[in-house]
Amino acid sequence: MRALPVMTMVVALAAPALAQDTLHESDGRYAYHAAEAGTLRLDTRTGQVALCSRQDAGWSCNVLPDARAAYEQEIARLQDENAALRKSLAEVQAGAATKSDEPKGSEPKIAEPQRAEPKSAEPKSTEPKGREPKLRLPSQADIDRMMDVVEKMWRRMIEIIGSLQHETEKI
């Protein structure tokens, strides 16, 4: 019978220790660090950080925004853009090589300019950024052909002005 009061006392003293919040107990997956607004919880498997704070109903952990994921998305977007620019540069260089193979007296062919479709006013939040339509810029060969046409038009206009001046001097 004497052991019963001692056991009751041990249980009474141990109960608050067992009833403490179990936030800091884990299987080694989480690392906890004290912060002004609560406790930071680091998931050692995923690297995800959450801010944990005591609420009326118990502990609540809110995941903090992961800047690393945003950086990785931006890096992927830039890598895709870089690849597209490299491909475009290769096309321009290939076009310049074919331009030098054309005979000098041949008439340059004028390509129809490609127009970009107007963007709709609706946001495209459901599509990833990598699938947005991209503007196709003219190649160096296209620019050279256009400059040849403009130069011929300019020379013809100068000839017409000169002939008009010559005719007006006769009058």
Folded structure, characterized:
The structure is a single chain. The protein has 171 residues and is of the alpha+beta class. Among the domains are: 23-64, no CATH class; 66-102; 138-171. The chain has helices at 3-19, 67-101, 140-170, and strands spanning 30-35, 38-43, 49-55, 58-63. It has a 4-stranded antiparallel β-sheet with strand order 1-2-3-4, with no helix packed on it. The longest helix has 35 residues, at 67-101. Residues 15-23 and 120-124 have low confidence and may be disordered.
Percentage of residues in strands: 5-15%
Biggest beta-sheet profile: 4 strands, antiparallel
Percent of residues in helices comes to 40-55%
Number of helices: 3
Compressed to H and E, one letter per element, the order equals HEEEEHH
Residue-averaged pLDDT, rounded?
Answer: 76
Q: Reading side by side through the largest sheet, how are the strands ordered?
A: 1-2-3-4
User: What is the total tally of β strands?
Assistant: 4
- Radius of gyration (Å): 37 Å
Structural class: alpha+beta
Q: Unreliable stretches, pLDDT < 50, 5 or more residues? A: 15-23, 120-124
Shape category: rod-shaped
Spatial separation of the terminal alpha carbons: 142 Å
